[in-house]
Amino acid sequence: MNIVVVNMVIPVGQGLFPTGNDLSSIILNILWVVFFFSMILLFNQRLQIWTYQRNVEKATIKLQMLADKSREEALKSVQKYAQENTDVRSQVTAFLDFFTIEPVDRDPFGVLNRLEHLLDNRRDRFKAFVAQIAPKAGKAEAANTEDILEAAMALNFIFKVVRHYLILGKKTKSLMIFVQLDMQLPLIMKMAEAYFNAQKTFSAGKPIGDGLGPLVASKLMYGLPKRIIAEDIVCSEVDISNRKAYVLKAEGPGGLLGKPGEAVKRLVEEMSGKVARIFMVDASSKLEGENTGEVVEGVGAAIGDPGPEKYKIEEVATKYKIPLDAIVCKMDLEEALTTMKKEIVEASDIIIEKIKKAIVERTKEGDVVIIAGIGNTIGIGQ
Fold first, then answer.
1. pTM exceeding 0.70
2. Which residue of 120, 171, 226, 281 has the fewest CB atoms within a 10 Å radius of its CB?
3. Could you tell me which CATH class the domain 209-373 is placed in?
4. What local confidence, expressed as pLDDT, does residue 164 receive?
């Protein structure tokens, strides 16, 4: 058996383990890796907080700018109808923080009556305030001024809420506050910009997308006698294929909503419940991917009301077993609050044809129907 002897030549000054400079390099590398991961563990959350906080701060600055511009726009609109040498700035600025407390709902009995009472109080306070600071404004101009103040109040509230959570996040150094707020910012900013653009439309007195229902009603009742049927609601009698149709809308061209629920209730009671159908026309929020101006049919009380007006319609329809037909036009929030688009105007003609067809198919000659055009009637007469 042959034995092979391998000679290992080791340079002078080196052994099997690193020494000198090599050992120092390894130690430095280890220390660097430990330091790097320590920094990640210690400062990662702080870096995240700083990133999200910066996004929220930018949004807050923009919201403050929108709120300030909105307030100035409201002041400009009010000053046109104010008495000379009257300082309305302090009054308008203070009124932007006006609030309404919802009624207690733990005992739901009568909650809608209490809510309606508070909403009536709120509307009366708005009218009184506008009459005080803008005594030269007519009915339509006063109504438009109320809408301008509403938009300014909404922007002021959005800004203050976002600023509140920004300051709260800084005080508590809470990552979750900033994360949740940052996730909501795209929707918040879209809503704020919609209200800001709406204010310009209100100032110009132009029809808005939400005026689709009043536009349909206005086209049906054009040139016919009208009467006031409820607060800020006008009504006309229209013949459609030998059926008697009572068409109602808010009284324009001021930015009014009126009380359509009360109007429908009074009409039905006047006729002792002998109404074949109730047709309701309103704007509806669209989902992403749906087309603006798309017309959709359904059943129920199509009205974006906090509760009282919708309840009146449902209650009287249920009492007399009257079918409720709903026809809506799809649009997003900004389209509903800003100048009415061509697609929405064209949709009004489509809705009229659908109503006429439905009346022929679902009622008999001699029947009575009610057609309610729901929405803000700014810029739309009758």
1. yes
2. 171
3. alpha beta
4. 95
